[in-house]
Amino acid sequence: MTKKILILPGDGIGPEIIAQAEKVLAFLINERGFDLKLDHGLLGGCALDAVGAPFPDETLKKAKSSAAILLGAVGGPKWESVERSLRPERGLLAIRSNLQLYANLRPAVLFPQLAMASTLKEEVVSNLDIMFVRELTGGIYFGEPRGIRMLDDGQRQGFNTLVYSESEIERIARTAFEVASKRQGRVCSVDKANVLEATELWREVVNSVAKDYPDIELQHMYVDNAAMQLVRAPKQFDVIVTTNMFGDILSDLASMLTGSIGMLPSASLANDGNGMYEPSHGSAPDIAGQNIANPLATILSLSMLLRYSLCEVEIAEQIERAVSRVLSEGFRTKDIHSDGMNCVGTNEMGDAVVKALASIVN
Ligand code: NAD
After folding, report:
1. Active-site residue 224, yes or no?
2. What pTM value is reported for the model?
3. Residue 77's domain is classified under what CATH number?
4. Is 335 near ligand 1, meaning CB less than 6 Å away?
5. What kind and span of H or E run contains 207?
6. Last residue of one domain, picked from the residues 202, 223, 258
7. Residue that terminates a domain, selected from 195, 223, 258
8. Angstrom distance (rounded) from CA 320 to CA 83
9. Mind listing the pLDDT tens digit for each residue in 22-41?
């Protein structure tokens, strides 16, 4: 049966990097006979400009009728001063929430060819392979009440609410334990239980879910220590499960261990098998339109889409091998470039991956 993939290029570098993943999809459809139908939609600033909403109803309709979604990135300075509820990032939060994409899997894997591009010493990061499991539809990014209010003394006060229910914690903990059972069998749950009641409950619920997974080793760590440990000795981690905001920050930190944020893919999954796949980085307005953005995180996100939503594990692995091969051949975008390597643009990197893929699958 034909499977529909919804493509949301978004803003900034989004359209440039998505175009490279679409080259891979075109190869799969035209050269390998994959029965896929590509549909396109609007999300973020481009949607606000076109139809007056960052997450149009039309996009929700298309998303609900798709097997999976591939997203570029949203946001940029152009929309920073628009009313808060209309900002591009609100569109992103809304699609995650509407589709109940509560589990954000962010692998931080170091390709050995990029050990030199990491800001840390090679021996600290070689063979790094961490899976972040970030809660994505709850916590302080969604908690109510929120806003900026006027106090009696005439000054303004900003406020947000960190809130987690037991069921929200339980389902993300189960995801983490399941993921760990297919890896090294170790989960580190990151919280701030010494200060925040919401994460005191987090720790309690994670402990009770752990009883169903006696073969998985569970450790708890405060977020400040986790940040330090990620830089000191990152290879101690297998799976890290944490809240929405802590996961947002720690996974960006981990991106630099792997050389560049331009290398990190992500999958956002719902219980019903719905999935949205996107690079971990943002819309990088500072480099948009210059053909210098790294498209590999987006191509690796497509590989996660094929693996998790379409169960096409073989082609997913072949795409990962194609990425590894272009790195071995010396192709580098500017963010991962080092002396002696072949510095290429976004387009050229996309072409190189398709060429490598063709030679791997044929
Ligand atoms: P960013 O991730 O866009 O950029 C941070 C830095 O990394 C910049 O120097 C950028 O040039 C670089 N970078 C990012 N992706 C790259 C790539 N593929 N290749 C090479 N370099 C890359 O984060 P930011 O600057 O904090 O945010 C910019 C905009 O993106 C904001 O509007 C923000 O709200 C939005 N944002 C969107 C998402 C998303 O769509 N999922 C995530 C984070 C930020």
Report:
1. yes
2. 0.91
3. 3.40.718.10
4. yes
5. helix 197-210
6. 258
7. 258
8. 40
9. 999 999 999 999 999 999 99
The rounded Cα 132 to chain-centroid distance in angstroms is 9
The answer to whether residue 334 is domain-embedded is: yes
210 and 318 belong to one structural domain: no
pLDDT tens for each residue of 82-125: 999 999 999 999 999 999 999 999 999 999 999 888 889 999 99
Instruction: Name the phi and psi angles at 193, rounded to 5.
Output: -65, -15
Q: 252: exposed, middle or buried (C-beta count within 10 Å: 0-12, 13-18, 19+)?
A: middle
Q: Is 89 in the pocket of ligand 1 (CB under 6 A)?
A: yes
**Cβ atoms 174, 209 nearer than 8 A:** yes
- Whether residue 114 lies inside any domain: the answer is no
Q: Is the CB of 317 under 6 A from ligand 1?
A: no
Q: Which domain holds residue 140?
A: 119-258
Say how many Å lie between the CA of residue 205 and the centre of ligand 1: 33
Q: How many domains does the chain have?
A: 2
Specify the DSSP class assigned to residue 292. Answer: -
Tell me, letter by letter, the H, E, C secondary structure of 55-93. Answer: CCHHHHHHHHCCCEEEEEECCCHHHCCCCHHHCHHHHHH
User: Is residue 213 helix, strand or coil?
Assistant: coil
And the tokens for 330?
């010396």
Known catalytic membership, residue 252: yes
Catalytic residue list contains 192: yes
Is-contact 212 180, C-beta < 8 A?
Answer: no
Residue 73 CA: nearest ligand 1 atom is 40
CA dihedral 117, 120, 123, 128 (to 10 degrees): -70
